[in-house]
Amino acid sequence: MPAFGARLRAAMDMRGPLCVGIDPHAQLLAAWGLSDDPAGVASFCQIVVDALADRVAVFKPQSAFFERFGSSGAQILESTIRQLREAGALILLDAKRGDIGSTVAAYADAYLNPSMPMYVDAITASPFLGVGSLAPMFAEAHRHGGGVFVLALTSNKEGPEVQHARLPDGRTVAQSIIDEISQLNVGEPGLGSIGAVVGATIGDTGHDLSGLGGPILVPGLGAQGGKPDDLRAIFPGNLSAVLPSYSREVLGAGPDVASLRRMTSKINDELMIALGSPK
Questions:
Q1: Rounded distance, CA 114 to CA 244, Å?
Q2: Between 245 and which of 19, 102, 196, 253 could a Cys-Cys bridge form, CB atoms 3.0 to 4.6 Å apart?
Q3: For the stretch 245-267, what's the b/e string if a residue is b when 16 or more beta carbons lie within 10 angstroms of its beta carbon?
Q4: Which GO terms describe its molecular function (predicted)?
């Protein structure tokens, strides 16, 4: 299979840069008139698939909202992933997995091995046991043409306490993560397959993302306060690598299919303008 970075580039060029989060939390299910149980989640996901599967480059299901229903939730997630893939979309599972040794290897096998039932194109990962602890995940991604997005600079208020802490060499923890990701993408033609997660509301932190070489997943847009124009200020040298993620602002337009499509088209158009060639 072609490398994830190449497949992501092609999908974004064809369908636009938008990544849509699939977050069937209790409040959203209620807003859609659906029950907070497996049947409600299944109906929610089917509406999203029917409305958007052939229109969006990347979908990002949040694993936790399926896991809370046990095996039933896992079955719904597997079915949703399969339907989205059949419609030509890429699937980025937001699971933020991270561990060491055989455990992280098992996570990699579960999500990045095409022979497994929960196989996805890419996964989010936590590096705070050390970026090197994720080596089995990176290896599995490269083996099967998958991708990994590593948490680097998140928008949550607790993040800076760890991410902005200084190492003996003067770099922040976040910068060291970015630098290690950059090394993993050295030699990759075009967009690399190992990316970073950087929140849209971090502001000017002085971190250098210019040499990352891979995609940048950017949550925090829409309902969380980030705007398309913010992307030009935060990522002036990486705009072509930015994968902006919206959840609540898109899903809030549901459950009407036409409304979901209109909102998705509107946001995709705004993003394409914001991510055009820097002036």
A1: 26
A2: 19
A3: bbbbbbbbbbbeeeebeebbeeb
A4: orotidine-5'-phosphate decarboxylase activity
* Backbone angles phi and psi of 80, in degrees to 5: -65, -45
> What domains can be seen in the chain, in order of their start residue?
4-274 (3.20.20.70)
Q: Which residues are catalytic?
A: 96
pLDDT (average), residues 56-67: 98
What is the distance between the alpha carbons of residues 31 and 256, in angstroms, rounded to a whole number?
A: 12
Please check whether residue 178 is in contact with residue 152, taking contact to mean a CB–CB distance below 8 angstroms: yes
Give the angle 241-244-249 at the CA atoms, nearest 5°: 170
Q: What is the DSSP string of 148-178?
A: EEEEEE--STTHHHHHTPBPTTS-BHHHHHH
d(CA 153, CA 218): 10
Cis previous bond, 236, omega within 30? no
